[in-house]
Design goal:
Elements (H helix, E strand, L loop, with lengths): L5 H13 L3 H8 L8 H14 L2 H13 L2 H4 L2 H14 L2 H10 L3
C-alpha cells in the first residue's frame, strides 16, 4: 500500500482550494505531520486568504510565524503571504514582507 507524503497532502489541499472547499483544505492541512514545502505554504496561504475568517487568520498567521527562513526567500510563497495578510487587513506585516524582498 502506498503511503501519503507531503506531496499527496499538498495535492489534496490544492484540490479543495480549487473547488472552493476552504474549510476542508484547512481541516486536512491541520492533519499534516510532515515538513512543509514552499508549495504547501503557498497553497495554505491561498486557502486562508480566500476563507478570510477568524480560523483562517489564526492558521495563516501561525504558519507564517513558524515558516523557516529558506521558505521566506521564495517569491511565490512571499507573494501568497502578502496577499493573505492584505486580505486580513494586516497591512503593516504585508509591507514588512514586501520590503524584505529583493528587487
Amino acid at each position: 500500500m502506498k503511503k501519503k507524503n507531503i506531496i499527496t497532502y499538498g495535492a489534496m489541499v490544492k484540490g479543495y482550494v480549487g473547488n472552493e472547499l476552504f474549510e476542508k483544505a484547512l481541516d486536512l492541512f491541520e492533519q499534516i505531520h510532515f515538513s512543509l514545502t514552499n508549495v504547501t505554504y503557498t497553497i495554505v496561504f491561498n486557502a486562508c486568504a480566500k476563507l478570510c475568517n477568524d480560523r483562517a487568520m489564526k492558521v495563516g498567521k501561525k504558519l507564517l510565524a513558524e515558516m523557516p527562513e529558506n521558505c521566506r526567500n521564495d517569491n511565490t510563497t512571499s507573494n501568497s503571504a502578502i496577499d493573505m495578510l492584505m486580505k486580513f487587513g494586516d497591512i503593516e506585516r504585508a509591507e514588512r514582507i514586501f520590503r524584505s524582498m529583493k528587487t
